[in-house]
Amino acid sequence: MNDLNDRTLTIERTFNAPLKLVWKAWSQPEHIAQWWGPKGMETKVLEHDFKVGGHWKYVMQMPNGGEFIAEGTYSEIVEFEKIVSSADFKPMTEGVELHVHFEESGTQTKFVFKVIHETAAYCKQQEQMGFYNGWGSTFDRLDNFVARN
Length: 149
What we know:
- The protein is about 30% helix and about 45% strand.
- The chain is α+β, with helices and mostly antiparallel strands.
- It is globular, with a radius of gyration of 15 Å.
C-alpha cells in the first residue's frame, strides 16, 4: 500500500467568515448549489442526505453543454469539525475519499480539504489534470459565497 501522503492532494484556505456559516455552506443543499464547482459551472443538487451513510449527488452543467456528475456517501460527520465522504466525479475522477476539516479561528474559518486516491500514480495523474486549478476555483466561489452571506 502506498504511503498516505503520496496518495493525498491537499488545499488549505482561511475563509473570512464564521465557522457556522462555512459549515452551512457545506451542509445545506440550497447553499451548495450556489458555489459547488469551478467558475462557469452551474450546479444542481439532485440528492443530499447529510448524515453518516447518506448519499449525495450533484450535476454540474459545463460551459460546453456537457454534464459532470459528482456523487458519494458520507462515512463520517463531526458537526463543525469534519466531513468524510467517498466521491466519484464522472467522467474524470472516481474512487476517491474527501476529508474536509473546519476550525474556528476568531471570526474566520480555517479549512483543510484532502482528497485521498487509491494509488500514488492516480494521485499524480489527478494533480496533473488540474486538481489545484479546479478545486481552487471552486473554493474561490465558496469564499465569495460566504463573504456575501
